[in-house]
Amino acid sequence: xxxxxxxxxxxxxxxxxxxxxxxxxxxxxxxxxxxxxxxxxxxxxxxxxxxxxxxxxxxxxxxxxxxxxxxxxxxxxxxxxxxxxxxxxxxxxxxxxxxxxxxxxxxxxxxxxxxxxxxxxxxxxxxxxxxxxxxxxxxxxxxxxxxxxxxxxxxxxxxxxxxxxxxxxxxxxxxxxxxxxxxxxxxxxxxxxxxxxxxxxxxxxxxxxxxxxxxxxxxxxxxxxxxxxxxxxxxxxxxxxxxxxxxxxxxxxxxxxxxxxxxxxxxxxxxxxxxxxxxxxxxxxxxxxxxxxxxxxxxxxxxxxxxxxxxxxxxxxxxxxxxxx
Length: 325
Known about the structure:
The chain is an alpha/beta fold. It has two domains: 25-237, 3-Layer(aba) Sandwich (Rossmann fold); 245-323, Alpha-Beta Plaits (2-Layer Sandwich). Helix content is 39%, strand content 26%. It is built from twelve helices and 14 strands. The protein has helices spanning 2-24, 65-72, 94-97, 116-126, 132-142, 157-169, 187-202, 214-217, 237-244, 257-265, 291-300, 315-323; strands spanning 27-36, 39-49, 54-58, 80-85, 88-89, 101-104, 175-179, 206-211, 222-227, 230-235, 249-253, 270-276, 279-284, 307-310. Helix 5 (132-142) runs antiparallel to helix 6 and helix 9 crosses helix 12 (315-323).
């Protein structure tokens, strides 16, 4: 009997620690997997997000970003593994979870035939928000008060984005999921959007945002890279650059960009080479590729007037390195 009691106590202690861990994280996944027939869209993904963080989920189209978010929002069930969001099991406690999270899809999910106000009223009703004051606040915070009576379908991309964000925030969620929210909007709207995201995070809202824009990932506190359904790495941008890129970054200026790129791609000590506007951007192997060697090799191929300057590594460099294994 004593052994049985001790065993039960041990199980209780383990469960207590697990419950405490879930309370410490806004999101916690363990081996999260989604299969559609024989195709695995998300393959054994494990990560955690602390309250108040801005975490970027980066990868090309089809890498599993949206599928992951849909599982975390309890829209679709995992095929294997587990996920707890705000301490709730997405597979068993979906109804308790949904009122506490906000979700903005990449297509904005607006009703074009309804006015701006009517869209907000609809989503407020879905989340059980009845206070008219809250609708007024949502209109003002999104800056769309003057368009309240305009049909959503007549708004430009940037204004549609603002409205979609207001709809996702009308019930003041603790956690906000954003699925490629800046696709199809202009640079000014993108910048204004990120200003709003920072303000939300400062107020305590946890942000989980997917994107395929590497420059946007730099705005996140931590970044996870998805490729072919797998989470390749997750860490701060600075840590990712330091730990995943061992070589040096260089910018190469030359008038013969295409020829220069071909030559550099043939060098064993050049790990990555790509065009970046009016220059070439390369990552060299550590200790193997001096500036003199780069210049001599290019000159030997008839590419002269070359300038090489040290450059800062980017998250795109990190992703390419990870994706190539």
